TrEMBL record:
Keywords: Acyltransferase, Transferase. It is an enzyme of class 2 (transferase). Coiled coil: none annotated. GO terms for molecular function: acyltransferase activity. This is GNAT family N-acetyltransferase. Its EC number is 2.3.1.-. Residues 177-316 form the BioF2-like acetyltransferase domain.
Length: 361
């Protein structure tokens, strides 16, 4: 008979800020083969610092062990407002802003270990936490609990950077037609002025803030309904660049920035997070140009894998790669109070959708 899981829930802010816990957390991350950048202590801290003033959050950080296996899983209890039927929802730290939320296992787990961990975790949550639902977004297939219902799935694309070659200092798309077109448009762009590329360093903090402000304005024009929590991206770049896990790139024409890209760099993987362009230059494909530059910088720094993160947009296919699926999964508590809240929440969502359809008409 296998040993039972030992589950600890850290439910006070002082607990998760304790240097001893952060050191243990980092040790698990450093020793794990399945650790992803989004549960790095620095990024989780950025997210918490952003959302604690905006939402009613309580930490539910999970530390678990069974034999040589250790697991860290940063969760929070989110007490939502009246517009969301006062739901008490357990979500991963980084919910809705970060792409992956798989729990981090020190030793590569098999399916039995993953599912038995989730069963033990739910038993501990049921015993000590009042909640209405659990929402686990950004989970790879092995990380989806059997007791959760999958409500959404999305492709993500990864490919090896080892065999990529440099062309005029850039890493171009594998599709030759797209690569040739990218170089043609870049040549046309250079005819209008000096084209320069910048990879911001930790000592460039002032320039990072100024460039980010311009980037966010252009991003807002392209995606006007995308929510950006106040100060989140500024803090992400400030802390992430300092820690060596966030990269920020800018493409500049004659002193005017026209494309930007925020990426993550962690343990050989280069993750493409947030691009933006000045739409006035869209005919020159500045997004492809900024990506070609960012990939070249990643290869120079020793990255071996490129991850396009969530989304199956066509432009990502130009660089090739292998698609995998990630899932959003939900578990709803069956108590009477939870069923009432969840029912009211569903009615509110239906009313919101009806208003949106009416406004469109």
């Amino acid at each position: 008979m296998s040993k039972p899981w030992q589950i600890s829930l850290l439910t006070r802010w002082e607990d998760i800020e304790d240097p001893a816990f952060v050191e243990q957390w980092q040790r698990i991350m450093d020793g794990s083969d399945n650790a992803h950048v989004f549960f790095h202590p620095v990024l989780v801290r950025v997210w918490l610092d952003t959302y604690r003033p905006l939402r009613a959050l309580q930490p539910l950080f999970v530390l678990a062990s069974r034999g040589e296996q250790q697991v860290v899983f940063p969760l929070v209890l989110w007490r939502q407002n009246a517009k969301n039927a006062f739901l008490r929802t357990i979500v991963p730290a980084g919910h809705s802003d970060f792409d992956y939320h798989d729990p981090v296992f020190l030793v590569p787990p098999d399916d039995e270990q993953v599912q038995s961990f989730y069963i033990a975790l739910k038993a501990e949550l049921d015993k000590s936490v009042k909640y209405d639902r659990i929402v686990l977004d950004g989970m790879h297939e092995q990380s989806v609990p059997d007791y959760c219902k999958v409500v959404h799935q999305e492709p993500c694309l990864q490919w090896s950077l080892n065999t990529a070659e440099f062309t005029e200092g850039l890493v171009l798309p594998l599709k030759k037609k797209v690569a040739k077109e990218t170089m043609r448009r870049m040549k046309r762009l250079k005819e209008q002025g000096e084209l320069t590329f910048r990879h911001f360093l930790p000592e460039d903090a002032g320039d990072v803030r100024r460039s980010l402000l311009v980037m966010l304005e252009h991003h807002k024009r392209r995606w006007p309904n995308a929510y950006k929590a106040p100060g989140f991206h500024a803090n992400l770049l400030e802390q992430g660049i300092k820690a060596g896990i966030v990269d920020f790139f800018e493409v500049n024409l004659g002193g005017q920035p026209l494309a930007w890209r925020v990426c993550y760099r962690y343990r050989g993987k280069f993750s493409l997070y947030m691009p933006a362009i000045d739409e006035a230059f869209s005919r020159y494909a500045p997004g492809h140009i900024s990506l070609a530059y960012a990939l070249a910088e990643a290869k120079k720094s020793g990255a071996v894998t490129v991850d396009h993160l969530r989304g199956g947009e066509d432009y990502k296919n130009a660089w090739g790669g292998t698609k995998t699926l990630i899932y959003d999964a939900v578990f709803n508590d069956n108590s009477l109070s939870s069923r009432m809240r969840l029912g009211f929440f569903k009615l509110l969502q239906q009313a919101k959708a009806a208003r949106a359809r009416f406004q469109v008409k």
